[in-house]
Amino acid sequence: MTLHEVRQKYLEFFKAHGHVVIPSSSLVPQNDPTTLFTGSGMQPLVPYLLGKNHPAGARLVDSQKCFRSMDIEEVGDNRHTTFFEMLGNWSLGDYFKQEQIPWMFEFLVNELGLDANHLYITCFIGAPEYGISKDTEAAELWQKLFTQKGIEAQIADIDTEENGYKRGMKPGERIFYYEGKKNWWNRGKTGPETTPVGDPCGPDSEMFYEFTDVEHDTKFGEHCHPNCDCGRFMEIGNNVFMAYRKEDASTFTPLEHPNIDHGSGLERIAAAVMNSSDVFPVAHATILSYLEEISKKTYASDKRSFRIIADHMKAAVFLIADGVLPSNADQGYFVRRLIRRSVRQADKLGINVASFAKIVRPVVDMYKDAYPDIGTKAEEIEKVIGDEEERFRTTLSRGMKEFERFIGQGNLSAQDAYQLVTTYGFPLELIIEEAGEKGIKQIDIEGFKELLKQHQDLSRSGSEQKFKGGLADTAEKTVRLHTAHHILLKALQLVLGPEVHQRGSNITQERLRIDFNYVGKMTDEQKREVERIVNEKIQEDIPVVRTEMSLEEADKLGAEHEFGAKYPERVSVYSVGPLDSAFSIEFCGGPHVEHTGELLKSGSVFKIQKEEAVAQGVRRIKAVLE
């Protein structure tokens, strides 16, 4: 069974149980200030889990593209990837545990054919200090399903201690409660005590698959168990029972209509179906075959290099397709890092320069049916990657001179390594390898990792104001600037050309920011004309109208799309003016003012503060109502 067959079976299974299939959101989050990337299936659905009505209804199913930048250095083993798809099914106040657990068991065992003897389950042990009881209901539901298959499924507690687990698994035990913070879902760190006040949260139940060909490695602890990291068990899904809202530091109240949030890594489930503890031959087969062809080497002989290139190039292709171009900051920094690490591994495999960018093609071949936009943008993506490879090789040549200067002192400090990575694009493994060849044994790797973590944390916190797609809040000033943003985009298209489209946005109470595709700096005359158009439309006091319609109708009207986004069958659009004579029409969830004249409060005038380049072919405008 291929990756795509597993995805399709999942979507069809839940569709048959009354769920509406919704498209994957972009890898660049549009309304989440906490992260630079979409890293989980639930991320784009948080507003609906918090109570907002979803246009497609209360039962949803999807396969969400995800990217986790923190896993870059981990790629190279048999299971870590930066890019993956998360299969998700959602109940927004509809069904709960009694339906979800039997459905998942049926899907895994009956639909996919997994041997239930190799399935293991974990459940929430309870938090009596917060009045949250042990999740015996979930454990007993699972136990009943195993029993019906003639499989013994004893329920047991596993005690934990600082350095590992005090006990392993006893014969017949299959369902486990873990002492501590496991099996609890919230948007913060794991555990009821770290749940943000006001957030929905609840216990969860994780599903693990046992690979019988993997022996327990005692370096991960004396005893093996489902949550062990030795590789014998792999988590293939998590059922979140979102049953509570945190009211204050110590009080959790039951939700009137609890939600289900299920997530399963597509690649991991496919690996379980193939009974392969190595996810790469399952999830990257086409790419690995191409790499073998152009390198004249085998996956078996150079697994780490093959894995890094396959994962990183797949991630880069999807990120570039969603509008993220290589750069030295924010999202673009990670695309640059992915490509440059891949170039280094390609050199190790002897892959020539002419073949490297063409690795885009097998990625496209794998995904063009599920994600058609990847296919239509293949040539553009290949050019971006080829240009970045060329840029890296030039930078590498310059950076080697700096490297020689740094190591002249006999060691390599954390700051030196950090500068080589962030300024010259050196992958860390290149620094270690080159230092080793020069006889340098003192490299402050831990110090470097701390500096890099600070850089990443700064990028994330900076994203709350700089790179958050959408509105910082719903204050009156922010809403006014949101409407001005819609008018500005249309004005840019009138002045610069209809091919101009939004590539990102951020709107606070103080100013709006729009990123848009355009080659070349805007002239002062163009900026003045854009300002004139925007202020003219504000003065005309045009009604701003929200309309819910079919996706097909919105497309026929020429409604402006959010870059990289896919939409459900029913969508919300905002028009500046009635639909039949609108100045602008955009897919948008709001909020907006009712009339453009509301932007005139306190005698406000729209003014462009700054226009600049932020990436290759992408410009940025910051503007205010002053």
Low-confidence parts: 462-469
Query: What percentage of the residues does DSSP assign to strands (E)?
Result: 15-25%
Total domain modules: 3
Number of helices: 19
Q: Quickly give the CATH architecture of the largest domain.
A: 2-Layer Sandwich
First-to-last CA distance: 60 Å
CATH topology type of the largest domain: BirA Bifunctional Protein, domain 2
Structural class: alpha+beta
Secondary-structure map with pairings?
Elements: H1 3-16, E1 20-21, H2 46-49, E2 59-67, E3 83-91, H3 97-111, E4 119-124, H4 136-148, E5 154-158, E6 160-161, E7 164-165, E8 173-178, E9 184-185, E10 200-210, E11 233-248, E12 251-265, H5 266-273, H6 280-283, H7 285-295, H8 303-321, H9 330-349, H10 353-356, H11 360-367, H12 372-376, H13 378-407, H14 414-422, H15 428-437, H16 445-463, H17 476-496, E13 502-507, E14 512-517, H18 524-539, E15 544-550, H19 551-556, E16 570-576, E17 584-587, E18 606-615, E19 618-625
Parallel strand pairs: 1-2, 4-8, 5-8
Antiparallel strand pairs: 2-3, 3-12, 4-10, 6-7, 9-10, 10-11, 11-12, 13-14, 14-19, 15-16, 16-17, 18-19
What does this structure look like?
This protein has 626 residues and is α+β, with helices and mostly antiparallel strands. The chain folds into three domains: 3-280, 2-Layer Sandwich (BirA Bifunctional Protein, domain 2); 284-463; 476-625, Threonyl-tRNA Synthetase, Chain A, domain 2 (2-Layer Sandwich), CATH 3.30.980. It contains 19 helices and 19 strands. The strands form four sheets. Strands 1, 2, 3, 4, 5, 8, 9, 10, 11 and 12 form a ten-stranded mixed beta sheet that branches. A four-stranded antiparallel beta sheet has the order 13-14-19-18, covered by helices on one side. β6 (160-161) and β7 (164-165) form a beta hairpin. The protein is globular. The protein starts with a helix and ends with a strand.
